[in-house]
Design brief:
- By secondary structure, the chain is mainly β.
- It has a single domain, classed as Acid Proteases (Cathepsin D, subunit A, domain 1, Beta Barrel), CATH 2.40.70.10.
- It is built from two helices and nine strands, in the order βββαββββαββ.
Length: about 120
């Protein structure tokens, strides 16, 4: 399978300064990860620390905060992880679902969901 990337616009929940960020779509990641540098430039403040298990099975601790994310005219709030230097920049499942998006299993392209699961 190939990799799917999207270009999203992110900003602070209460701010106007925004930035376009290229993210790898990762439906195996719960939250989106964006570089600490980018988030700090936008003025995003961490609200707490959380523990995450990496694909290699390591447990890491990272700060998280709240942002608004926009993709193709749709905007939604989402929780974001402050990614450190060696971490990847990804769009996780929470961000995808907040925006009403899904990944087409055949084309591997991001598309609007016809309907989100309600159960």
């Amino acid at each position: 399978m190939g990799e799917t990337y999207v270009l999203v616009r992110v900003r602070m929940v209460t701010g106007t300064k925004q930035k376009e960020v290229r993210l790898l779509v990762d439906t195996g990641a719960t939250y989106s990860w964006i570089s600490r540098k980018t988030l700090e430039e936008l003025g995003v403040k961490p609200v707490r620390r959380m523990r995450f298990k990496t694909i290699r099975g390591d447990v890491v601790e990272r700060e998280v905060g709240h942002i608004l994310m926009e993709y193709e005219g749709e905007e939604a709030p989402t929780l974001v992880v402050f990614a450190e230097e060696k971490d990847g920049n990804v769009l996780g499942l929470h961000g995808l679902e907040s925006l009403g998006l899904e990944v087409d299993p055949v084309t591997q392209q991001v598309r609007k969901s016809e309907a989100l699961l309600a159960l």
